[in-house]
TrEMBL record:
Superkingdom to which the source organism belongs: Bacteria
GO MF term list: inositol hexakisphosphate 3-phosphatase activity
Pfam family, one: Phytase
InterPro entries in the record: 6-blade_b-propeller_TolB-like (IPR011042), B-propeller_Phytase (IPR003431)
Name of this protein: Phytase
Domain BPP: start-end pairs: 13-335
Length: 335
């Protein structure tokens, strides 16, 4: 299988007094037109080697790009004509009309002040043009969605979108919407407002651990905040941690579950590295350099994706309009 293989030679990253060698990517995607930001990985249930990486191109004339595992753009799966799509997430088995189950991607469309919902892999819109968010916000910047993560409740099977924004109040920065399907179509119903904000920078990166029902988000100038994703468990913060390990902005979050260990991987944006934390204890484990710069978003899967990525895949945004692919084993999580 032909890949866009890139060799990064002689590059070292100095961080926290250490010199970190670059872990070279296996694949670098074809370039988007404008400004990459956040990826999401869809695993093809029939043939994992034909899985798709979706990535946002964050501009007024933006798009959700679809890439194959060689990093090539899949044009007939790419969604164009969007108004600044920012972050994207994915969930499996959303129930339509209590009968049909579909996989879905959801993403924010900042300039239209809405979120979008499409089925995968046929890429059909399920939202009648979009769901407006933060409609009760009083300030213009409070209405501009940025981060998004989807949560599927293990108990109720309900599917939610947890949405962040360009700016917001000290409390209730995040809104959580339930996707509901009925005979009239799909709706996004607001179920709660939650989440503290330090007011230092902004909140963009959000990730949900479906397995344990926990939502993590980056309060960029402060720390990683941790809440219950299940609305019935309340809005009290569980923990805030990790801020001392970042040079400046705390950004993209990815979660890796293995049989005996689980990890949180978070972009240390201005350092050009990623910090790895133990998911159970929140303890810092190590810092790694994957060769990306100014990384906003990242995503991963521990599932083998054919011969190309037999140990799973880690995808991260690079600021040259590309995404980097690494075989997950290269991150050394189980060393």
């Amino acid at each position: 299988m032909q890949k866009n293989i890139v060799f990064i030679v002689g590059v070292m990253m100095v961080s926290c007094g250490k010199t970190l060698p670059v872990i070279a990517p296996d694949v670098i995607t074809e370039k988007t037109l404008h400004d990459t930001d956040d990826p999401a990985i869809w695993i093809n249930p029939n043939d994992a080697s034909k899985s798709i990486v979706f990535g946002t191109d964050k501009e007024t004339d933006g798009a959700i790009y679809a890439f194959d595992l060689d990093g090539k753009i899949i044009e007939n799966k790419t969604i164009r004509g969007l108004k600044r799509p920012n972050n994207v997430d994915l969930e499996y088995g959303f129930k339509l009309n209590d009968s049909i189950k579909v996989d879905v991607i959801a993403f924010t469309e900042r300039e239209r002040q809405q979120i979008r919902l499409f089925s995968v892999p046929d890429m059909k819109p399920l939202d009648n043009g979009g769901f407006k968010v933060f409609e009760d916000a009083t300030l213009p910047e409070y209405k501009l969605p940025m981060g998004i993560a989807i949560y599927k409740s293990p108990r109720t099977k309900k599917v939610y979108a947890i949405v962040g924004r360009k700016s917001g109040p000290k409390n209730g920065y995040l809104y959580q919407y339930e996707f509901v399907s009925d005979s009239l179509g799909v709706h996004a119903n607001l179920v709660r407002k939650f989440g503290e904000f330090s007011e230092k920078k902004e909140i963009e990166a959000i990730a949900v651990d479906d397995k344990n029902g926990i939502v993590y988000y980056s309060d960029e100038g402060h720390g990683i905040r941790k809440y219950y994703a299940e609305p019935s468990k309340g809005d009290k913060q569980i923990y805030c941690f990790g801020g001392e390990f970042f040079k400046e902005d705390i950004e993209g979050i990815a979660i890796a579950h293995y049989q005996n260990n689980s990890f949180l991987i978070v972009s240390n944006q201005q350092a050009g590295t990623f910090n790895v934390f133990d998911l159970k204890t929140n303890a810092f484990i190590k810092e790694i350099n994957l060769g990306t710069t100014e990384t906003d978003g990242c995503d991963l899967t521990t599932v083998a994706l054919g011969d190309s990525f037999p140990n799973g895949l880690f995808v991260s945004m690079n600021n040259d309009k590309t995404f980097f692919y690494h075989d997950l084993k290269k991150l050394g999580l189980l060393e």
